[in-house]
Write a structure and sequence with these properties.
By secondary structure, this protein is an all-alpha fold. Helix content is about 75%, strand content about 0%. Helix 2 (about 50-75) runs antiparallel to helix 15 and helix 10 runs parallel beside helix 15.
Length: about 400
Amino acid sequence: MADAATSFEGHSKVSSVSIIAICQVAAMALWFSASAIIPSLVAEFRLSGFAQAALTSGVQAGFVLGCLVSAFLGLPDRVDPRRLFALSAAVGAGANALLLVVEPTSAIVPVLRLVTGACMAGVYPVGMKLASTWAKKDMGLMVGILVGALTLGSAAPHLFNALGGINWRIPLGLASVSAMVAAIVINFAGIGPNRAPSPRFDPRKMMNAWRDVPLRLANLGYLGHMWELYAMWAWIGVFLDASFALAMPAANAAAAAKLAAFATIASGAIGSIGAGLLADRLGRTTLTIAAMAVSGSCAATIGLLFGANPTWLIALCIVWGVTIVADSAQFSASIAELSDRAWVGTMLTVQTALGFTLTLVTIHLMPYLINVLGWRYAFVPLAIGPAFGVYAMARLRAHPRSVELAGGRR
């Protein structure tokens, strides 16, 4: 048999990780599609503010609920992750497809989005668990590839909106087809040599995410990162639209803002993959501390360029977009390296549940910050998260078990 880093039980590492990454993005299209169709739905059906929020927040709330149930039952570690991924993607595809046959103003829509989000709990952390089974001195890169691909998917709605003229039923239908294809193709991925035997049912294990000090510190660092990330992703397009309206002709401002928002978020893919390569060589805590220091500085200063020359504003947005995601995969890689191998999937699921719960707070906090502070200072409070994250990761760096990270490269 070939080197386990290259092949295991007849499966190639390169082909398996490629399949996992492609399937994860294809299935997560169910999440991204909601953001892409909101402008069209508002124009056609005059959706209320609550209905608009339900399309996105409903998915996130369902995701958190799904993660909690999955972690409690230990599903990512007790069943074949490919089968869990496939079932979740297929059910999510069906729930998403039902949006094509119900009125967008119907009370059933938030329920369908909640179900879709719950299904994503069987896709996102499970995909990371699958990739981690193939890691050999490149855990950061393995997870970084997945997060980078998902970052591109998160940016796609801004590109769709900039292009305009797309019937909302098309991206919605394509998302369901994409997820169903992912449900089939994921079964061709292999599970790498790092997978431990399936553990017995023990719901208390999910509490290790807090009881175990190194895991707790890595999770606290992740929470600091998530405090900033999704609030920035959700509001950077609105910020750029308002800023460009002051700095360029109105006829060009809206389209330019959408393209700039796409570039800002999509640039995170470069940060995620590049940071994966660097973190495996320089260390997890080194990379995450540096990334959060830069991204937090961007959050604190971006408003000073509100209404200023778009070129300078876009440049700073790109720096923010790269660094705000650069650390994301490394928190997950840290959890995978610090956890008992038998419970990696559960620990990753708990981590994502905690992080996405926090995003529900910060995304909805932003309108109040904008009203009170104005765009010039609205993003400044987001810098609190990275500052706290730097502290947590510095504490982890000083812990004796930090030698378990990146082959001893803390």
